[in-house]
Design a protein that fits this description.
Helix content: 10-25%
Number of strands: 11
Number of domains: 1
Strand content: 25-35%
CATH topology: Jelly Rolls
Largest sheet: 7 strands, antiparallel
Order of helices and strands: HEHEEHEEEEEEEE
Length: about 200
């Protein structure tokens, strides 16, 4: 069902290491995920690095980890599970599992430039970001900015509903610019270590 998008992602990871796809999975799915995120009330301040240290001078979003619970979350996780299997089959990546969370950026929230792979640790290999925001306008802030390994600007991504960003976790520093209004997304990582 999603073979075309899986193939497009795979080709981009090989060719340039990242891809931004608008109208990626389903507008309906992104709307139902947004409704689910809005009613979820167990968001906690996000930590930095594997130490989970809270540092609001570097990161201010709030998160809620996703489980395969039979709800709309499971539909999204079925898409990512299919992508994991496709990447393993075509690129021999030996990805073991996918972890993800809802992220909320309230007005003024941001995340400074960082890499998703923890230093000196081979764990997160491929990053995904899936946006849930309807009617997002230029000037609403919260854009994802992607840089080359040398720190030069590559791409600025508006966080509009049903836009999917996929990139190699160890290769692309990135940041989230300050949000002007509340911004919802799902951030996730395909990993090669064992689930704890």
């Amino acid at each position: 069902m999603h073979q075309t998008i899986y193939s497009k992602i795979t080709d981009a990871l090989v060719d340039v290491g990242y891809i931004v796809i608008e109208d990626a999975i389903s507008k309906n799915l992104s709307q139902r995920l947004l409704k689910d995120a809005i009613i979820e009330n167990n968001f906690k301040p996000a930590g930095i690095s594997d130490a989970k240290k809270i540092d609001t001078s570097r990161r201010r979003d709030r998160i809620h980890w996703l489980d395969d619970d039979g709800s709309v979350r499971s539909e999204f996780l079925a898409f990512t599970d299919g992508l994991k299997e496709y990447l393993n089959r075509t690129l021999f990546m030996v990805l073991t599992y996918y972890e993800s969370h809802y992220s909320i950026y309230r007005k003024g929230d941001f995340y400074e430039t960082h890499l998703d792979a923890f230093k000196n640790s081979k764990n997160r290999v491929v990053t995904t970001v899936y946006y849930l925001n309807r009617e997002w306008q230029e000037g609403d802030g919260g854009e994802l900015v992607i840089y080359n390994e040398d720190g030069s600007f590559l791409k600025k991504v508006e966080p509009r509903a049903d836009t999917l960003v996929v990139f190699l976790s160890e290769k692309f520093p990135h940041e989230v610019l300050p949000a002007i209004k509340k911004r919802y997304s799902i951030a996730g990582w395909f990993r090669v270590d064992k689930r704890v």
